[in-house]
Design brief:
The complex is a heterodimer of chains A (about 120) and B (about 120). Chain A is mainly β. Chain A is built from no helices and eleven strands. In chain A, the strands form two sheets. In chain A, strands 2, 4, 5, 6, 9, 10 and 11 form a seven-stranded mixed β-sheet that branches. In chain A, strands 1-3-8-7 form a four-stranded antiparallel β-sheet, with no helix packed on it. Helices cover about 0% and strands about 55% of the residues of chain B. Chain B contains no helices and twelve strands. Classes of the chains: A mainly beta (about 120), B mainly beta (about 120). At the A-B interface, strand 5, strand 9 and strand 10 of A face strand 5 and strand 6 of B.
Chain lengths: ~120, ~120
């Protein structure tokens, strides 16, 4: 089992659809992240969860809604997206050992979900 | 403010050549960590190295080596005897106390190794 898995790997949706991205980590980590990677733009941090609590919401539009039911699973619920939301969405995990402040430990990434919004 | 600059957008070399990817960072903190990640065409970012600000020793791992110089705020990455499998986008990143829960990524350098 690979460390961080993401499903689906590819998703095409219309602007009125509702879909969810799923991320699962098998590394025993306690922090998880969502990133957005658009063409020719730096990686953008979207959300951070540490110990299942959201500790960062990086000014993300409300049409993106994260959910972290436990330390191994992270979801990103999508609704009424725009074409400019088309991107690669990456999930990552790490071990947070600073008691709520995310540590400096390296993050391990999943393969991403390639999202296309029509 | 924290910032990571990778001035080289794309690099293309012939297999077996050595290649250096540049990374310049900005931070006001004295404690910080620097990272390099590799993103092959499959899309998954692969962690390569983490270096803390108090350890300026250069590091070598096989054909990979890293040169950390605080005096120039640089953390450069060299691949020796490059191979086609090294073709990927490489990201330099910074995490410091001020950024708390964030790793600040550079814009990446796309490396193409031609056979």
């Amino acid at each position: 089992e690979t460390g961080v898995t993401q499903t689906p790997r590819h998703l095409v949706m219309g602007m009125t659809n509702k879909k969810s991205l799923k991320c699962e980590q098998h590394l025993g980590h306690n922090a998880m992240y969502w990133y957005k990677q658009s063409a020719k733009k730096p990686l953008e941090l979207m959300f951070v969860y540490s110990l299942e609590e959201r500790v960062e919401n990086n000014s993300v539009p409300s049409r993106f809604s994260p959910e972290c039911p436990n330390s191994s699973h992270l979801f990103l619920h999508l609704h009424t997206l725009q074409p400019e939301d088309s991107a690669l969405y990456l999930c990552a995990s790490s071990q947070d050992d600073r008691g709520g402040l995310i540590s400096y430990n390296e993050q391990f990434f999943g393969p991403g979900t390639r999202l296309t919004v029509l | 403010a924290q910032k990571v600059t990778q001035a080289q957008t794309e690099i293309s070399v012939v297999e077996k050549e050595d290649v250096t990817l540049d990374c310049v960072y900005e931070t006001r903190d004295t404690t910080y960590y620097l990272f390099w990640y590799k993103q092959p065409p499959s899309g998954e970012l692969v962690f390569l190295i983490r270096r803390n600000s108090f350890d300026e020793q250069n590091e070598i791992s096989g054909r990979y080596s890293w040169n950390f110089q605080k005096s120039t705020s640089s953390f450069n990455f060299t691949i020796t005897a490059s191979q086609v499998v090294d073709s990927a986008v490489y990201f330099c990143a910074l995490s410091d106390y001020s950024s708390a829960s964030k790793i600040i990524f550079g814009s990446g350098t796309r490396l193409s190794i031609r056979p």
